[in-house]
Amino acid sequence: MKMLFFILGYLFFCTATRAQTGKIDSSEMVTLRIDPQAARGAAVSQIFSEVEFIPLETTKESLFGNINDLKIIEDNYVIFDYDTKAILIFGKDGKYKAKINASNVPVEKDDKNKVEFYGFIAEQENNTNYIAVFSGSRIFYFDLKGKLVKKIMQKNYINLHKTRDIKFKDQGAVFRPDFLERKGKDSTYYELGIINNKDSVGYFPYSIKRYENDEFWSSGSRFYQSSPNEVLYLNFYSYDIYKARPTKLSLAYHLIFPAVYSLPNDFATNPVYVKKRGEYFQNNPKVFYCLSNTFLVGNNLFLKMHNYGWDRSTKKALIYNLKTSELTSIQDLEPDSLSSFLPVTDANGDFYDFMNRGFHLFENGYFYTNYSSLAMFTFKEQSEGKTTKYPPNLEAYFKTQNKKSNPIIVKLKPKQN
Fold first, then answer.
1. How does 66-92 read in b/e, with b if 16+ C-beta sit within 10 Å?
2. What would the pLDDT profile of 236-293 be if each residue is shown by its tens digit?
3. How confident is the model at residue 1 (pLDDT cuts 50, 70, 90)?
4. What is the dihedral of CA 381, 386, 392, 393, to 10 degrees?
């Protein structure tokens, strides 16, 4: 709950003084009929061309529980662990570098509350990268060695409206979630804005009071960058996938699921569901309340669905091939020699990291996900005898670590066909 308030507390400063409400282009919309249970498995090497397991070094200081957020800054993996409220920095080889812990930040005399961390953003000033943490009325800047460099008041933070911007490669345009247009004393809130040198366009206007008047169920982000000039966007209580480009927003795909998984057609508009949405999902645990992890890589559309139920037989992480209509279940990917006969996600075991969070990143042509050391050692035992040699870093990991060691990052390069 605190994380929710932290986010909402600064989202709505994403401002522009001149903007217009944009029209959504649906002329090229494609309808995809998807029955998740019809999805089949595949060998890992059919879906990915490269697989790399990166154990994160475990020391007394670096030990942590889960990867709640992962970013790559320069040659470092920067991780936020919600359990310890800590930010950890590891090299690309998984070697531990530093830890940023709120308990090490002194409390200011005029602050009534202690410093607490609920996430971080990557910030850059004068071509230098920083890890910026919002806490209370201040923002703390740390370098990539974990050293506190400076602190400023949030009210003096000039980039507040840019914290979640995604830059397009062309035309100097940016995609901005939770976009606010100010016209004198009046304001209009939009789900997103596309901002370029000429003008700003907002899409899906909404009332700021909606969070007081209704429930909004989601899981993870609602926007994902698959290429330098394209962001896929998802709206609340919808199975539509939009494409944001430097000049416009288009309705790209309309997904239709079997009735047992589908929301009522009027779920977003009928007042009978207002403030009763959680109750509805609890009573209809198979219904998908949202999509997430939506990436378009070549002909392959990656996506996850979320529902209230926890039935492992339901296939909720899929790859739809737009060229062949073939549907692949990520939960049913079969390890092979490319992955040293180890699973590339923990979705096909008795674990939950991938089904909860999916892919943390898609960057420079690679997906990044993770699973626990408990899962890794379990998978190794299950694959006993299938391989006699692991990559050197895994060989060392298996010899020196155990089921209580730090999580493993999995780096995957998807094929485009």
1. bbbbbbbbeebbbbbbbebbbbbbbee
2. 999 999 999 999 999 999 999 999 999 999 999 999 999 999 999 999 999 999 999 9
3. very low
4. -40
